[in-house]
Design a protein that fits this description.
By secondary structure, the chain is of the alpha/beta class. The chain is 43% helix and 13% strand. The chain contains 14 helices and twelve strands. The protein has a six-stranded parallel β-sheet, sandwiched between helices. Helix 7 links the parallel strand 8 and strand 9. Helix 4 packs parallel to helix 5, helix 8 crosses helix 11 and helix 12 crosses helix 14. The two termini are 45 Å apart. The N terminus and C terminus are likely disordered.
């Protein structure tokens, strides 16, 4: 996992949990987010049992008093039962299903009346599936994705967006949430937390992209980025992507842009969240044309070397195209035409993409119209026309 300066650990900073009376808690998934979240539970005096596919990442926690378990089932055996809880922070719906329902999963050893809380950003349907599986074992499942990124995880200032079918389960989980972040927001029944998170990150992807384009434009016109930030941060363009997480190197300290976009929220993860959001939108017929365009831009950025860098590196991607903006336009037109052809069940030959590409736009993403992208002899986009 990329390093983050806020994620340094000192065993002396933790109260030893030997005499603590708080219920035990398990934590599975110790990446950029899970590790500091688990650390804050330990600092609060919880008896902590952790698991990760890479045991080495747990070393700072075990040095401070946590116990490492060899499997999710072993975590469940150690902490579950009335008053106990297990939190998970995983990278995909498939990983969530494996951790909960696999052969050595949590539910294979989970005692009744345990709180099972998944903080992963996955499909809302996955949360509902895990909730049903947990209920069959007498356990309560909550989806609780977070906002605030690695800095929020480190400072225990995360926002938890919670979906819960039970008032009692939400109340029982709240003390754990407040040890890792702000008072939680109950968004509705199971799956609602994820629905809110996907909507939030859809907006965030566009916000960051617009902020990056604005700073790139200002710089191209000779404006000092510090001056532009000073104005934007007290004007109508003020937003988190500018005043708290600015993507321009040198504007803020302690953010990914200050360390070559290492750490933070990877472009590949933003792409994953956009895919989930767009899939959810397609399922309910919600139009998301701007987000579809943003996904193509982040995809291009990932393909050009920024996949593992923080998503604010979209600014660096735009700066790299300075002087030849048509290179992005052509690449976007090709990506769009390829997607439309694929959706229509047709083959797409990128080598033949030149004079004209005609494709039917998929009914799930736009009204069924024929759309033409015209490319001039010099390779520049002339105009898209319907």
């Amino acid at each position: 996992s990329p390093s983050h300066p806020a994620l340094s650990f000192s065993p002396a900073a933790y109260p030893r949990p030997a005499s603590m009376g708080l219920p035990g808690v398990g934590f599975i998934g110790l990446g950029n987010m899970g590790l500091p979240m688990a650390r804050n539970l330990l600092k609060a005096g919880r008896r902590l049992v952790v698991h990760d596919l890479n045991p080495a990442v747990a070393a700072p926690l075990t040095a401070a008093g946590a116990t490492f378990a060899s499997s999710p089932a072993e975590v469940a055996s150690a902490v579950t039962g009335e008053g106990g809880a297990v939190f998970t922070m995983l990278h995909s719906g498939a990983a969530v299903r494996e951790v909960y329902t696999g052969a050595d999963g949590l539910l294979s050893a989970c005692k009744p009346q345990t709180l099972l809380v998944d903080c992963s950003t996955v499909e809302p349907a996955t949360a509902r599936e895990m909730s049903s599986a947990a209920a069959a074992h007498g356990c309560d499942f909550l989806d609780a994705p977070v906002s605030g990124g690695a800095p929020g995880a480190a400072s225990a200032s995360l926002t938890f967006m919670v979906g819960s079918d039970s008032d009692a389960a939400f109340a029982a989980a709240t003390p754990f949430f407040t040890q890792m972040g702000k008072p939680p927001v109950r968004c509705g029944s199971v799956g609602a937390g994820l629905a809110v998170k996907l909507a939030n990150n859809l907006a965030l992807s566009l916000q960051m992209l617009a902020t990056a384009e604005a700073f790139s434009l200002g710089k191209a016109q000779g404006v000092d980025p510090h001056v532009l930030a000073q104005v934007m941060n007290v004007s109508t363009a003020r937003c988190w992507s500018s005043d708290t997480y600015n993507p321009v190197p040198g504007i803020l300290e302690g953010v990914p842009a200050a360390r070559d976009y290492e750490g933070g929220f990877a472009t590949s993860l933003m792409l994953k969240d956009l895919r989930l959001a767009l899939d959810a939108a397609a399922a309910v017929g919600a139009p998301t044309p701007s987000a579809e365009h943003a996904r193509r831009l982040y995809r291009l950025s990932a393909e050009r070397g920024f996949a593992s860098r923080d998503f604010g590196s979209i600014y660096a991607f735009l700066e790299a195209a300075r002087g030849e903006p048509d290179s992005i336009s052509v690449a976007l037109a090709e990506a769009w035409a390829e997607e439309a052809a694929t959706a229509a069940g047709e083959s797409f030959d990128s080598g033949a993409f030149g004079e004209e590409v005609v494709a039917a736009v998929a009914e799930t993403t736009a009204p069924a119209t024929a759309t033409t992208v015209k490319i001039g002899q010099d390779g520049k986009v002339v105009a898209p026309s319907a």
